[in-house]
Structure prediction request, 372 residues.
Amino acid sequence: MSGGVLVLTGATGFLGRELVHHLLREEPDTRLALLIRGRDEAEARARGLAVLGDRLTGEALAAAQRRVEIVRADLERDQLGLDAASHAALVGRTVGVIHGAASVSFALPLAQARAINVEGTRKMLDLARAAGCPLDYVGTAYVAGDRTGTARETELDVGQAFHNTYEQTKLEAEALVRARAQEQPAAIYRPSIIVGDSQTGRTSSFKVLYWPLKIFTRGFRLVPGRPDAVIDVVPSDFVVRGICHLRKQTGRFGQAYHLCAGPERAASLAQLGEAAAAFFGCKPPIFVEPKWFIRARPLVDRLTFGRLRRILTTGRVYTPYMSLRLFFDTSVARAALEPAGVVAPRVEEFFVNQLRFARETDWGKKLAYAET
Prediction:
């Protein structure tokens, strides 16, 4: 491929897929280079083509392939694992970078999480600096860690503790981006809990918020969480539209944007539980303090089995998010997005669509594609 390319990382993930298809649809003159891991060139290419083929066929797929370059790359290696000539060629063609790749595992050892989330970010900053182009970094609102009250877009490290290594290393990565923004153009986007498309509910990631809902629909009414917990949830299309609008604004450099529902549109866990109960036609969940839920683990393990036990076991890392009393101020993001008509919808406007998609796909088991 000749000509300038917008480099994307994280294209095989849930949000990355949505970004790729949005850019292909809404920016017909933009060419993309997807940096994708793979044991070899064939595997990387297959993974990249799966992103395109997940919803494109025929001439539309062929047209997308003409606009998209798939680059086998490893963000943990020097020069992204490319040889000197290939790296130089990529630098020479790069006109922008959207860096969304990260390990989202909450249980990863700190050193491993840093290697991916922090050092991978450093390498993408280096690429953007060498190319003389801007970098748009996709972080997370949960760099706020265990804070309570209101977290503002201008704040980052205020001495908070973290629930997991994901939060900690995403804060460290954002701190790096902020520091480098003093010398190179870079902006930061902090989404909260991302669910599926607001209209279709489509998602390939059934984590965090989906976890207590899944427990509930399996007939286990005791759900870990505080009924008054603040659940800031946004649909993927809002986040994608927000990023793609903001990345074109010249005043974004050095700024962080909360792509969140905010205090005005966040829901409580009880509200979501009641909505789920109404949709599935069952009694509302009974919320249990997460600390008691964790202490009762031996009893829960004895009384559950099969799929329900697996759901309870694998999702325990999400329990801290079911008792948060934290709001994300969205003043800066709203001022930049609302004039363009990019507004986070209220939960009641899209939540049922998420539940319907989850039911129709059996919580992802019947998806047309699998996220890798």
